[in-house]
Amino acid sequence: MRRTPLAENASFYVNVISSYAQLSNPQLILGGTGVLAIDDLENQQVLETAVAGKADLLITANFQDFLNKDVKTIIPNKHAIYDFPHHNIHIVHPHLAINWLKKGTIPPIS
User: Fold this and answer.
1) What are the mean pLDDT values of the chain's consecutive 10-residue runs (110 residues total)?
2) Is the CB of residue 57 less than 8 Å from the CB of residue 70?
């Protein structure tokens, strides 16, 4: 049986977020809202969070779960681009992302 009441957990997380906000240049994105057309709710929120944070890359070995009609496949099972009205994001398999990061270059989204 859990001894910590939910209110104590909430207070803990509020304190963590508050402490983080006091850093000199904090950047924090708290989850997606579940509005993108992806079958898996967890992956939907991951993608929405990446877009909300204006990430350049979403690195995942779970590549297939992020594909839908709005995704342009560049390299099957390794690289795709998700096209949003105000931001595009690379969806990349970890092996390919590691190569990009080692070279210090991320391909432009055209």
Assistant:
1) 55 68 59 60 77 85 83 92 86 92 86
2) no
